[in-house]
Amino acid sequence: MDAEQFEFFKERYSRMSDEELANLLIGRHERLSDEANVALSVVLEQKDPAAFSREIREKVSDLNTQAQAAAQAVQKQQEHNKRARRALLVFFIAVAVIFGVVTFLR
User: What is the spatial distance between Cα 25 and Cα 70, in angstroms, rounded to a whole number?
Assistant: First the structure.
């Protein structure tokens, strides 16, 4: 392990707020280097477990709310796309019927 990298990450993480650490832990923990993971563990050991746990729960709740909102937006967009395709289909059928009637009456 690179001690210089460890110290860099430890210093950086020690200046972060609980919210920033929660974001780091939830969002990118598995992509951190070994030095960054060890530094994060050292910094987290110095935090108040109850307060940090509360911050994690709040962050997860916020992310779940955002995911639900995004899923609803996707569902609305899919429904809109379906209605638009149906409207285009009705329009082209109407055009075909009108064209057929006009052709037939000539």
Answer: 22
